[in-house]
Specification:
single chain; alpha+beta; Ubiquitin-like (UB roll); Nucleotidyltransferase, domain 5; 4 domains; six-stranded mixed β-sheet; 13 helices; about 25% helix; about 25% strand
Length: about 550
Amino acid sequence: MSATLHLSTLHGSQTVHANTPGDPTGLADLLARHGLPLNTRCCKRGLCKGCAVRLETGAVRDSGTGQILAAPGEHLACRVDWIPGTEASLVIPSRSLLAHRPSVADEFRIRVPVGDDPLFPGEFGFAVDIGTTTVALILVELASGRIVARASDFNQQIRLGDDVLTRINLCSSQPEMIARLQTAICRDTILPLACDACRKAGIAMERVGGMSVAANSTMLHLLLGIDPSPMGIAPFTPRFLERQMSSTSALGFCGIPDLPVHALPGLAAYVGADIAAGIFATGLHYESEPMLFVDVGTNGEIVLVKGDRLYACATAAGPAFEGSGLSHGMRATEGAVEAIAVTRDSTGRILLAVQTIGGGPPAQSPGICGSAYIDFLAQARSSGVLRENGRFDPIVVKSNPELFCHTEHGFAMRLNGGESPLSITEPDIALLLQAKAAIAAGIQTLLDLEGVQPSQVRKVFLAGGFGMHLNIPRAIACGLLPGFDPAQVETVGNTSLGGAYLALLDRTVLDELDRIRERTQIVELNLDPGFEDRYIDHLSLP
């Protein structure tokens, strides 16, 4: 049986015939499958109103109780199911669509020189970083290394699945999704970015010689149309790690000249070419003193070098640092709260200062991004607002009633005393502590392998977009980078894109990346006997 959904959005009306084999029953998942992803920032846990829709006609079913909910009414799309064999009309408010422009890191710092031996003939080349959430592309003049244009956008695969595991599971259960996910990244994401970059630079596509791509292992499999399913179950085996060559025509790019596409080599299923590119771009593999590379994201990838040894691991931090799963969390986009200052005056009154990306008023902010949550953890703990276990101090709550409210899961603190609708709850803090503990325990595990203390590490390279927005002293204070001094930490930006850029300019970089792969020992944290204890130790606030 089928269901027909008549949808009205800011961009007009459309009809969805929900009878495709394999269509999910959950309304949020169904809409995402048909190209209308919603703002499910709380990981579809019903903790926020990011995916609220208005039912105009027909009925839906409560996914928890099974109760039929007839129109009219407003519902969270993540908590209701469509009903086969019925028709319904929905209005999707613009605030509920995943439509904010992403804040993408396309800046990087390079610490190694390269030769002049371009990967492709021609005047220009594209370097691309494919992230799970966002994609960054630069157009490079090969003779000079000059970046002539930049373009970035959401990875359009998010319309089919928010994270790596969701996309892997889609491929496993529905093999036809491999082609759909490939189309989403190639035709719907990279192609428009490439055309946009050429337009900005006033350069014809015929003057471009080719494209180098860095990404995590799952994204590279989907780029090439290769089934990533084996990486979803133990022993997490990728189909390939070596460098791969293809072409824009083979990958389904339409309407442009056929260009060679070179995918950089990776290290393991969850330590991909993006990390190998970062190791090279920072020169980490040339160092002998203890140094760390840390890329904080949904999966926190960590690399340690000491002497002639390289160790790498991936730790499942979860999506909390991207705002997902939190009551008012969101990715770093225009208008999001990116910094929070928490202090107390001599009377014990809490003083808050909030800053948004773009400088808009906090009262109109759509949510809070990861860097602000890190600020909050550090300062709320140092000012006594939070206890070591991440709970609000009851005495502080009682003395600041205008800031706090009680929920069924504990206390929540409102930003700006109710002038802003945003708040931070104790369940939010618990998720943040779990993500923080995963990164910190991964770092400690690698250091313990070589008996290295944090004070002995000469440099910590903090990579990725999240790292660029972090207040380093506060990241250290909350225990995300445990035991380090701010002087040891250097933010290096999007080194995945940086490595792809360097490969464009000098083909010998590919040989160096192969040597990095051969030299790196992958540490499986789930097999390390001390990891769980370290993780538990880091669940508290210092």
